[in-house]
Amino acid sequence: MIDTGDTAFMLLAAALVMLMTPGLALFYGGLVRTKNVLGTMMQSFICLGIVSIIWVFYGYSLAFGPDIGGIIGSLAFFGHKGVGMEPGPYSDTIPHLTFSAFQLMFAIITPALITGAFAERMKFSGFLLFTVLWSTFVYMPVCHWVWGGGWLGSLGALDFAGGTVIHINSGVAALAAALVIGKRKGYQKQPIYPHNLTLTVLGVALLWFGWFGFNAGSALSANGTASMAFFTTQVATGVAALSWILMEKIHRGKPTTLGAASGALAGLVAITPAAGFVGPVSSVIIGFLAGMICYSGILLKEKLGYDDSLDVVAIHGLGGFWGALATGLFATVGATGLFSGNPKQFVIQLVAVVSVMAFSFIASLILLKLVDVTVGLRVSEEEEIQGLDLTQHGETGYSL
Questions:
Q1: Opening angle at CA 80, ends 76 and 81, nearest 5
Q2: Residue 302 — very low, low, confident or very high, per pLDDT cuts 50/70/90?
């Protein structure tokens, strides 16, 4: 039977996750130059529309429809047929439509995360086409593999709220995009600074707030597991912010506000796959190492020289990678990991991580090349100099 408390909780969680996409727009928007603030924010914001349409007609069905060979869902729910106010196959206490709404918010933010890798240089038309293709051919299959009855879920892979499905998936796609699109004009030759860190901190604050719906809501019920996920999310995030600025102090001499915000985001990413499976002390360890690992990832990017504009690979890719493996190490709630005498779980987590990384990278490369030969990926050099706000949207973020 429908439980009104669980339903109210899940509707609130879905609303919180929806707020994360505008929060991401603010986070990314503050990190780019003034001439690209609206174009960058638009890429996140418009995902709320693009992915919603896909989800209604076939996206939910591909991700959560009846399984076909462990790879993809059938079209049984095409047009949301049969997805109504009664309980569905994934929860006995909330309407099927509520579950779909919650998962829709996850599907919206995942392609939006990738945009940070190609900020300041991608054509809006190319972005729209890539988002449709990537959501259809990369996100939906991976989501089904882990959560929709596919082969990774059947294998026993643990991903409480999206470390593999969302963060590794988008982080690896971001690496593919940065490599295919190439560097921004002047990258590593002239300084490229964030134009408004106050926007960025506001964006992280909204992401942190929304993430409680992201992680606690993944329990699909207002219960003890949701409470644990809520608590571990807070702890890991705060610890990661401290860990990051500690690394900055040692490496650069001063802790920065951007570092604290980036560290918090790294902690949010890393705790996501583990949130409902680990206890408070484990969340401290996961968060502390997340700040250090993701900071190191940014240093590695500087040495390798690829232009991931807003460090999606270092924070979401590496953070998700660490979080997924850490779940296999520290799990004690509802599952056991290596440190609780179950080494098999760590091996399963490793298989899941490597499989998703390989699939997402190869598929994303193919889709990016396809978009490039059709509508094109990158703006012209003149348009890049002028900025995306004017050239792609005919407007400016500020009139000073």
A1: 60
A2: confident
